[in-house]
Recover the amino acids of this structure.
């Protein structure tokens, strides 16, 4: 099986959670700060949530086209990514809160389940972290 790379995101990060990150194309240039810090900047959990929610909406679009459903323009995913610690070990868990206005609950659940099977972020986390899908 041949894998075709469609895109490679490249960043250069210094200073860890209290540093900075810049993409190779300079479209992303951000300060980083630890969760709960009063310092300016975002944190890796917020960045992961933003990437996952954007990707998941794309996967919802693919699922909708397969199921013959038109996604509403107001489709939204509010991702919540928790940084957790248990007995000194760090982990993540997440909730994807999916809003599909005008689509009945059964169809929305089918779309979310299909999207969760195809979204690359969902695939990467499957079996590794606890993930909840919530239809709003």
């Amino acid at each position: 099986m041949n894998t075709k790379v469609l895109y490679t995101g490249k960043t250069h990060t210094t200073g860890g959670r209290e540093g900075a990150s810049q993409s190779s194309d300079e479209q992303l240039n951000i300060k980083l700060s630890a969760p709960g810090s009063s310092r300016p900047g975002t944190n890796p959990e917020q960045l992961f949530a933003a990437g996952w929610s954007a990707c998941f909406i794309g996967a919802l679009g693919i699922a909708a086209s397969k199921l013959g459903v038109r996604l509403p323009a107001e489709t939204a995913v509010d991702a919540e990514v928790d940084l957790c610690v248990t007995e000194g070990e760090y982990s993540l868990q997440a909730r994807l809160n999916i809003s599909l206005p005008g689509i009945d609950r059964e169809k929305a659940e089918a779309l979310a389940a299909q999207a969760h099977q195809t979204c690359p972020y969902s695939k990467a986390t499957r079996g590794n972290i606890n993930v909840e899908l919530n239809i709003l």
Remarks:
- The chain has a mean pLDDT of 96.
- The helical segments are 44-67, 105-118, 120-125.
- The beta strands are 11-14, 20-23, 29-31, 76-86, 89-99, 130-135.
